[in-house]
Amino acid sequence: MSFTHVLGVARRSPTFAVGFGAILVFALLAAFADLIAPLPPTQSFPYETLRPPGSGQFLLGSDGNGMDVFSRTIHGARYAFGIALPAGAIMAVIGIPLGLIAGWRGGWVDEVLLRILDVLRAFPTIILALAIVAATGQGFLNVILVVGFLDSPIFARIVRAEVLALRNATFVRAAVAAGNPEWRVLLVHILPNAILGATAQLPLRMAWAVRISATLAFIGIGVQAPAPEWGAMIRQGAEYVISGEWWVALFPGLALIAMVLGLNLAGDGLSDLLDPKRRATGK
Amino acid sequence: MTAVLAIQNLVHRFPGGVQAVNDVSFAIAPGETLGLVGESGSGKSTIGLLATRLLAPTQGRILFEGQDITRLSAATLRPLRARLQVVFQDPWGALNPRMTIGRLLEEPLRLHGGNLAEARLLAERVRLPLATLGRYPHELSGGQLQRVSIARAIANRPKLIVLDEPTSSLDLSVRAGILQLLEELQRETGVAMLFISHDLETVRLVSHRVAVLYLGRIVETGPAAALFETPGHPYTQTLLSAHLPPDPFVALRRHRVQGEIPSPINLPPGCFFAGRCPLALPACNAGPPAMQPLAPGQEAACLRIADRTNRLEPAEDPA
Amino acid sequence: MSLGGFLWRRALVALPVLLGILFLTFMLVRIGDQDPVAMLAGPMADAPMLARIRAELMLDQPLLTQFWAYLGRLVQGDLGLSWQGNAPVTQAIADHLPATLELVTLAVGIGALVGVPVGLRAAERPNGWFDQASRFGSLFGFSLPTYWLGLMAIFVFFYLLGWAPAPMGRVSMMVTPPEVLTGSVLLDSLLAGNGEAAWSAAAQLVLPVGCFAIVATAPIIKHTRAIAIEVMGSDYIRYARACGFPRRIIRRIALRAALVPVITFVGSEFTSLLAAASLIEFVFAWGGLGHWGLNAILLGDFAAVQGYVLVLAIASVLVFALVDLVVLLLEPRARA
Amino acid sequence: MTLLAVQDLHVEFATRGLDNRLRVAQALNGVSFTVAAGEVVGLVGETGAGKSLTALAAMGLLRPPARIPHGSIRFEGREIIGLSDRELEKIRGRRMAMIVQSPLTSLDPLKRIGDQLVRMQRVHDTAHGAAARTKAEAMLAAVRIPDPARRMRAWPHELSGGMAQRVLIAMALVNDPALIIADEPTTGLDVTVQAQVLDTLRDIVAARNLGALVITHDLGVVAHYCQRVAVMFAGRIVEDGPVREVFSRPSHPYTRALIDSTPGRIAQLGWTVTGGTPPDLYDLPQGCLYRDRCPRAATACLAAPPRIAVSGTHGAACHFAGEAA
Which residue ranges does the record assign to the ABC transporter domain (chain B) (predicted)? Predict the structure, then answer.
């Protein structure tokens, strides 16, 4: 991996490069939020509420509680990664084995997975997530678990599709014929080949997780108001939009879009980079 | 001497009603190559999968070195696989793309308690440049990849190698090298081979005996020379006459048999070829015709053989 | 395959899914910590009254018994009572569904009208400038939260420019709404010849439909592009070129081939937007089914949540059946 | 009359790797041959030799990243290279028609066979309406499709591979072209079907005095269905001439190796040929491209060999072609 390689990747998939760059920026913001943010995210200045951007210490204005929108937006990145990474991990930890077994063995595991997917198809996940979080409690941890678990079958389906395509691949047959035990066929021969296509989908699923957790917070379940979460901040800003204080809702929204877009671009670009057909034509 | 592989009354039905293999029996002796010839839908690849128990048959028996392996579990089969090997048609797809050639060659040794250092010897044996050991499959040519597959197959000194169209996707000049390698290996180790192909010339070159399949049934078997010189079954005659020898000075002698192979769903009760056969008798549709002897070691499943009226009239090449 | 047989088979496949969804929802709303009895009875209720209500609602019975009873009533068309306004759930659904359908149909319609041509055009030159731009645009649309978009639209077009009416409901409070026929205020006003109400209803629709359409268009572009690229790379398109067919004809062949998968996708898009409508309705105080369902979830209104989810599920089953029917008509291979 | 004259055709592909470096593959390196009316010319060679690329270039179907830096393709006396798409569209399918390798996936899946044949005529303005239908049905009969009236209404997915290939032949012939280009026309077909389809094609080409370019890797097809043959190796034609002459007196070592690799010859002569890898098209050596594999390679081979005439119509690009083998 040299500089020319980086350039090559960027040339071949500008989408991936831009998306990856955006994620990187947000990662830095999240990591060094305390250093970058001029004010603590939940420090309230009761006499300086709803100040427009650029007034005094409030670079992007202040909200109804007199908190700094800029600092809160930066700290919001922590919530975004706080949901994206663990939810992605849950999807991978549940989805990969589930998809592997469902795709390779078929049988009841596959049946159950397919029925769950049927239900999810007819039962929009956003409503399901809402209902579950509303029913089971509104902590951030709960949101992470619900989002992660809800998306696991979808991730499992992606892995399953890859495994199904590989199951009748000649090299898998050859591996069985060579005398590989089943676990070795699965782990050494199928998994490394199945995982690549699924990996490209992970950023897309993470983007979905970030979006849905913000949506939950916007509706008022999930992360609650003073916490610097982008969805919760937009909810706070919603009431000021008709009275002209646009900045409270605008900036967290922009941050949310940039983060989700970054993940989407990265995922989209990644699937292009990993697509053997495109690689073969060298375009 | 017991046969290395004996297939007895094998039947295989795929879900959905496709009867791919229809009461097939044959045996292969040590050191022998049996050629299995057929067009698409003849069930030849399915027989290859059944013989190596990568697929379980619907009915019938498979004996490997005298042991019944028809219903053995995957775990019980595993040690046997050292001696029962297979090489597939598509060399580009037959090797795990994420393993180096070196690791691919070590794998069979690792699985059956061999010495990993032998991987280099294997590479040398199949005339694979040692420089390829560190490479990945996509960096090799089709011929080289097929050599890797063959090296993997011979790693544990097998008694039988099933070769499923091993040279069909290779270019002509590369093909010859692979065939030569296979012949040498058989001469040196006495390994038996089941050579599955649609390519008549190649089968004729490498096989001692040949079985001709049509819609999952063996219609004719015999020593390669006899079968190719005096084919008995009208289908075999048709197949051979349709072949285009790569020599403009050999005149074509065409039997104008029309139509194409019917779908292997809802097969008729009698001879499957009767629908296309110019010599078909009403009796041909009654039931599956029994094998009739033609010459020493050669027999065909055709009623016309009994009174020797099985010869198709050749139509001269119109050109 | 006959039409009747087709529908019958669809129903057989759909039934277990619907049952599963019902069961899931039923359990879900009951594991929560919200107590409907307290909510129904109000703060003044005493213990015997609470117990009486509990017994009336069968809440003292085991969950499975309750579910069985619910199914029994469901078969008779009784979805229970919603305690937002103490109305039968069926009535509430009938009142709220048209508003949502109006919104979603318009948004998906616009999404398809814009998204399909853009996706096709993008696929003509993969990685060309139009493709890159539309791809970025669709990913951008993918990443937009509807509710935020709605808020910003309200700020710009209502507060700043004053072009749009106040984001409250489906028709201005200053005009007399028409008699309810179809449930769509716009259609009803037009049918009643009430120009003023029609104008107001149309004005109210612009912002929510606009925002929703942006979100609806993005995935349609993305999928149409992918489908069209696959079609353009197919053997029969290559062969059509070799036959000397001009671009206009090749485009027509590709369009026909892409139609089936695109319609399938737009159908699935419709069902998922039906659910996502709740957010945009929330922002624009739309008062449709989504808004109502969202409130039901937030308030723990058992019967209403179940009714809402049931409607969504049935809608998705119906849409998929309809899509399959269309595919059956367009695709000779499916008829075999 | 010469229909197609390809002269010194070069085709290259420019691609960028992951390291962002531009790489140029020289896929065709000076291909020259002709096809006259009434003759079937075989273009034979192995994978990557450039056979199909030559056909695509002749049809004007090359798309970026492929480009033609040099060369000429004249069809019916007119230069093809540089023609606009609009002009090419008037030639393709009309004067010069192609038969492709995968018949089942090449037909428009959403149109009945008859309608596709009619469309082919309508697009090229050769016949319309009832006349086009009559012609379409006659064409199906001409390619020996049984019950053509019924087949007119068939969908492509209802056809077998052999039937579909016959339909493609009918498609190619329906506008009465002068030249047929068949790219591996029988590769996917079974032996018995292959023979039937090739017989049909040959009879029609002969009866209508068409020119045909048959691209194949199968020497049997060349031996029995072509009058002349051009042998390709690494983007060059290494030998060309009448089929019987080339088979009886192969004058390029590659042609000889090809012929000696056929199982029948192996059975007679034993193992004489060892395969090798074709040269890297991204990094072509100077001189004879077959040098590395050639048993007769000598210092002379460091210079590119010219085509040396073996007889009036037979020649090979080998320095030693004139000598007795």
Answer: 5-240
